Amino acid sequence: MYASADSLNCYPADFDKAAEEVKQLKAKPADAEMLRVYALFKQAKVGDVNTARPGMLDFTGKAKWDAWEKEKGKSQEDARKEYIALVEELKGKYGV
């Protein structure tokens, strides 16, 4: 059981468990959902985007960078909470 997404503490073990569980979904989430998973993961682990935007021919890289950039200013703690909540939602939608 995870700490609730609105609880004061977000335990690193909960985040790590969610990161493993998202890899075990029975069906592949939509691209937009996966971009959100990626963006929240990066924001939680690294913080604000710290790399240059990929070149125009790197479509996947640009999409991932843009998704992460949208999380700019969000605390790593808030990103962890949102990530855990999103993974729980995806587990309900796609199964594990």
From TrEMBL:
UniProt GO MF annotations: fatty-acyl-CoA binding
Signal peptide (from-to): none
InterPro entries cross-referenced by the UniProt entry: Acyl-CoA-binding_protein (IPR000582), Acyl-CoA-binding_sf (IPR035984), FERM/acyl-CoA-bd_prot_sf (IPR014352)
Superkingdom, taxonomy of origin: Eukaryota
Chain ranges of the ACB domain: 11-96
Pfam families cross-referenced by the UniProt entry: ACBP
UniProt KW keywords: Coiled coil, Lipid-binding
GO BP term, example: fatty acid metabolic process
Family, per entry: Belongs to the ACBP family.
Protein name: Diazepam binding inhibitor (GABA receptor modulator, acyl-CoA binding protein)
Species: Salmo trutta (Brown trout)
Gene: DBI
